[in-house]
Amino acid sequence: MRCIGKGAESAVMFCSIMNLPPPPTKFTKFNNILLQAARETCEESMVEAVHEAVEENDGGRDIAVAVDGSWQKRGFSSKNGVVTVTSVDTGKVIDVEILSKHCLILSEKN
Known about the structure:
Strand order of the largest sheet: 1-2-3
Oligomer: single chain
Strand content: 15-25%
Distance between the termini: 26 Å
Low-confidence stretches: none
């Protein structure tokens, strides 16, 4: 919950609303499980959106898209950003790319 700026009390409330057991005190293991589930769901959803867009275009894979990007902060001080590709015909997200000026591989080695 700290990843979204909430504390233990918010986690307890969330678990009670979702009819889940009380949250553990250490979330690292569960964050990885949630990340994997979110990635799988996201990828499945985007594959389905591509199929819908191709069907909408009578089987042609040359589809119209809108591309939009954003950084976490204005100016050149932001280290995190995202780019999304959305089908113009269906309005569904076809692809997402996370951008970072921070090298995670080097920071993990140190």
